[in-house]
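Q: Got a minute? One more chain.
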Amino acid sequence: MAPVERELGLSRAESSLAFSLALPAHMVSLLRENGLHEAWVIALPASIGVIQVLGRLLLYFFEHHFDLHLANRLITCLLPLGLLALLAAPGAGAGQVAAVLLFVLLYGMGNGMLTIVKGTAIAQYVNRDHVATLNGALGLPLALARAAAPLLLGLLWTPQAGYSHGLWLLLILSLVGVAALTLAQRLALVPKA
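A: Always. Here it is, folded:
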């Protein structure tokens, strides 16, 4: 596998593991743990799909106004920023609910936009002959991640720390994904000699 393909694969696997797979199964418990009223605990996870569509619409309407490569990097940063907001929420005092709401907004929009970026980034940075190979090579690891991620997050939960250990792990994995995408962009955009 070429360096660009390897980095894109890593980026895709890390971001998928970190967000798309682990958090939804634990979202209600995460929100309760962060002091949200029960009505918000039910309403926010139910609204994530709408927020994802909003993110995709924003991407659609503004895609021609931003540099594509910069947009790809910024969109992948929404998810780690959302996690930082969630990790900061317990120490935010009266701003705890606002921090959790910011997390849900960034998570929903970032996840919605990332769905498009994951598909288009591979086509942008890998030649067409290798797209199918890369998707095939990632099939089994992503399937295993989809199966293991919610379980892993649950196993990292403790009565004393709640989800914080798992959230820190997800933050690290998401930052690895952002770094891998950035490196893949640099490798793909280097002029060929």
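A: The chain has a mean pLDDT of 82.
Q: Perfect, thanks.
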